[in-house]
Amino acid sequence: MLKISDITYSVEGRPLFEGATANIPAGHKVGLVGRNGTGKTTLFRLIRGELTLENGEISLPSNARIGGVAQEVPSSATSLLDTVLEADRERSNLLAEAETATDPMRIAEIHVRLADIDAWSAEARASAILKGLGFDTETQQLPCSDFSGGWRMRVALAGVLFAEPDLLLLDEPTNYLDLEGAMWLEDYLQKYPHTVIVVSHDRGLLNRAVGGILSLEDRKLSYFRGGYDQFVRQRTEQRAVVMAEARKQEERRAHLQQFVDRFRAQANKARQAQSRLKMLERMTPVSAYEDRKEQVFTFPAPEELSPPIVNLDDAAVGYGGPPVLQELNLRIDQDDRIALLGRNGQGKSTLAKLLADRLIAAEGKVTRAAKLRIGYFAQHQVDELEVDETPLQHLVRLRPEERPARLRARLAGFGLGADQADTVVDKLSGGQKARLSLLLATMDAPHLLILDEPTNHLDVESREALLRRSTSIPVR
């Protein structure tokens, strides 16, 4: 069991946890949810012992192994399959020792332990995991250096799944998976033999792959049984009860205070007024939940252009070599809402760059409306932000003529309040960086807004707000 007992932790004076407590039973699959910037990734670092608590304790059974996905698999000549096999350090160490051991007793112990951990089927298990994440048998023999960072992150995920730690911590694992890979991961996590805590803003995964939700809100942790939809219902019911109690108490306090104010100066009522005053002092306040504004995104409205705004006629595009995509024929009008689907590596981002005028067609014809403005949110655009600048400074650089109050209002329209506006980007959460990137992509009121994986770091409420906004962008 993972025990989180009365923990307190702050970042630069801002409390993330205050007396937070939770118990996760062994073998449970749990989704960790909370708004962007509340401290979900920080909690993982506290569990791993990378950060020091101010108060409280986090405990696990002795010798429990904690595993998570590394930031990036090294770009080495080691094959994908061998990289995953090496993730099980106990197996690798035992096999290496078996090559040099001379003591018959120790050799016997090694082989017993290898049998216990099913070492002889390791290659088949590792290969099956890689296949589930999109690597066929031939590809598994290629060196890691042949793959981009996103694909190597899949290899890192395969490695930690293969190692089967007692506590598996996954932070947004579906961000670098296609739809098929994400569905495979859901099924794998359901069958995982040990405890899993997964930070995810994928509502489908949180409904299908976990049996409990750990909610981080108001610097506290609360555990709910069931998937995400069940959690939302339970939380709504819980809040309704607390709010009703708070209103009832407020009415009772007002009634008592009214009596005190009216009769405390009258000698024949002074004792009763004093008694009610003491009742007010002894009354423990019921803490009502803070009212939370609905997540919104405020996109400026562009003027209307004559259709089509973009037209592809037998176009081909690539990166200087053979075309990645060819025979492209597509018409886009201003009121279109288009979802671009396909497996990883099939050219979705390449097509997005062509439409965004970031790549030039190698063949065919691309026609764009004369006054067309394009907003483009690239898949890795959050990595292109100036990490030592605040969101407000980003906007001041782009809009030096606008008053700071107007720029702050723009930031607030994307969920970046006063605190986030004056915090350097390096200290913002992934979701807060994504909101800033979305704001920068839409500031010029684009007629065509191209979003390449915009929801990777957004919390559930923000994802749904973006969906609502993207299906109702106005034209003036």
TrEMBL record:
This is ABC transporter ATP-binding protein uup. It comes from the Bacteria. SUPFAM superfamilies: P-loop containing nucleoside triphosphate hydrolases. One of its GO terms (molecular function) is ATP binding. The keyword Repeat applies. The keyword Cell inner membrane does not apply. Belongs to the ABC transporter superfamily. It holds the Pfam family ABC_tran. InterPro entries: AAA+_ATPase, ABC_tran_Xtn, ABC_transporter-like_ATP-bd, ABC_transporter-like_CS, ABCF, P-loop_NTPase. Signal peptide: none annotated. Residues 2-243 form the ABC transporter domain. Keywords: ATP-binding, Nucleotide-binding, Repeat.
